[in-house]
Amino acid sequence: MASLTSFADEALIALDTLADRASGLVAPSLRLGVTGLSRAGKTVFISAFVHNLVHGGRLPLFEAQKSGRIARAFLEHQPDDAVPRFQYEDHVAALVSERVWPDSTRAISELRLTIQYESASGWGRLFSSGKLAVDIVDYPGEWLLDLPLLGKDFRAFSADAFELANLPVRADISEKWRQEASVIEPAAPFDEMTARKLAEIFTAYLSACKADHRALSTLPPGRFLMPGDLDGSPALTFAPLPDLGDGRFPSGSLAATMERRYEAYKTHVVKPFFREHIARLDRQIVLIDALQALNAGPGAMADLERALSEILACFRPGRGSILTDLFSRRIDRILVAATKADHLHHESHDCLQAIVRRLADRAASRASLSGATVDVLAMAAVRATREGTVKQGRETLPVIIGTPLAGETIGGETFDGETETAIFPGDLPADPERAFSEPIVESVTGKPEEPPIRFVRFRPPKLERTAEGVTLSLPHIRLDRALQFLIGDRLA
Asked: In the chain, what are the helix, strand and coil shares in percent, each to the nearest 5?
């Protein structure tokens, strides 16, 4: 990303980093970025991350917890007063008391979790403060997908947008926007209503891409779908234009104004986001809803791979020296995690992880993540199901048992949100390449279903209580492995 930032941007990043390092001499900290595309479970992951550490959850693969070296974990005031606080208490109340999933990430938020621990080595106990502040930065993955725009002018952005829109998986839902744009004369005098109409139709196309049966992921500009306080501003009232040719656009033309607004979007929205947040991260987890993409088919899987490649290319990977670390931060560990593993029987978890490995390896190769350790994981930050078996004729089928959300349907049955049921979700293929070339969810007959079986969404679990009435920590699948990879070395 250095080539996409100016000297002034780099100077500001260096000043921010130097200030962070100075404060870190007194109170060591680690900035953990949590991102993912919509409905990947960012809010749930952060809530479970904090809840299990604060409440001493069952984390057998998180070494510092397993060995009893963590004295306590507690929340403190975050260091960035201008960033909204992640509403941890509200989200946990929704999960535990109401048994509903908390609202999705709509903007940047932050939370500081401080861990008091004892180092595993004598030297560590001698020189370490025994305290680590983990600053968790939550932000929408759709915003991260805007960062590649910093390296594209308006012509390149427009050409890429139309190339994507013409793909078979998008052609039908992009048709109205493409038809409207095809009759526009870019050199014609600018008209606000024309610009507004094009922007609205383009936004509607991006929104349609997110529908469950499409599950598409590459949807820049991200603020078109999550505008926040920019809603209705000129910085969001532009759209790609076709056949722009070469040379400068006539002054006052539609193309010239669209170009100016596009550049304003990059200057006032994208660059500050990169400088103030992404460039300050030490570790990163990228959550993906691979099951939703698998349901939607090979086109959605290819689009997820494209989006993951662009996300990984936005980070500053690697390890610096003592001197360079004073002025710039590098992300040295990136975890790509497929969420909702509890929607599958554990027999399919290795297959899901292999599919994600295939996604991540190709994406990381394209993104040139030299110097950073990249790992993959199939997990569920909050486990909403348990496993069982059912008899069907002479066969014994592995099933998952839980309470589907109200309105979810499968096999013609609509669930009421109260009744627990056992579901056979289907089998994932042993060969991950099949996920990118053909329908992959198989029925009990071994033949692909048309349409494929849908994974239903479940309500959060009803938490167990101790004999004293204390609510236990949120159950999970492999959250401990995620914690070990992301922060375990800093607690050694």
From this structure: 45, 15, 40
33: Cα separation from own chain's centroid: 10
Give the tens place of pLDDT for each residue, 50-87: 999 999 899 999 999 999 999 999 999 998 898 999 99
Per-residue tokens: 2: 């250095």
Q: Pairing relation of β-strands 409-410 and 413-414?
A: antiparallel
**146: confidence class by pLDDT, cuts 50, 70, 90:** very high
Starting at the edge strand found earlier in the chain, the sheet holding 386-392 runs 386-392, 395-402, 421-423
pLDDT of residue 80: 87
Catalogue the long-range contacts made by 197-204 (C-beta closer than 8 Å, 24 or more residues apart): 198/238, 198/239, 199/224, 199/236, 199/237, 199/238, 199/239, 201/176, 201/177, 201/239, 202/177, 202/239, 202/240, 204/176, 204/177
Q: Are 117 and 69 in contact (CB under 8 A)?
A: yes
Q: Say whether 257 sits in a helix, a strand or coil.
A: helix
> For 202-222, what is each residue's pLDDT tens digit?
999 999 998 888 889 999 999
- Residue 34, H or E segment: strand 29-36
Sheet arrangement for strand 29-36: 70-76, 109-117, 131-138, 29-36, 283-288, 333-338, 373-378
- Residue 167 CA to residue 453 CA, distance in Å, equals 25
Q: Which pTM was predicted? A: 0.88
> CA torsion, points 161, 194, 273, 266, in degrees to nearest 10?
70
How far apart, in whole angstroms, are the C-alpha atoms of residue 210 and residue 228?
A: 18
Whole-angstrom distance, CA of residue 282 vs CA of residue 310: 19
CB atoms within 10 A of CB 175: 13
Q: Which two tokens stand for residue 278?
A: 């992404």
Find the radius of gyration of the CA atoms of the chain. Answer: 24
For 424-444, give one letter per residue: b (16+ CB within 10 A) or e: bbbbbbeebeebbeebbbbee
Closest-CA residue to 35 (of 291, 318, 273): 273
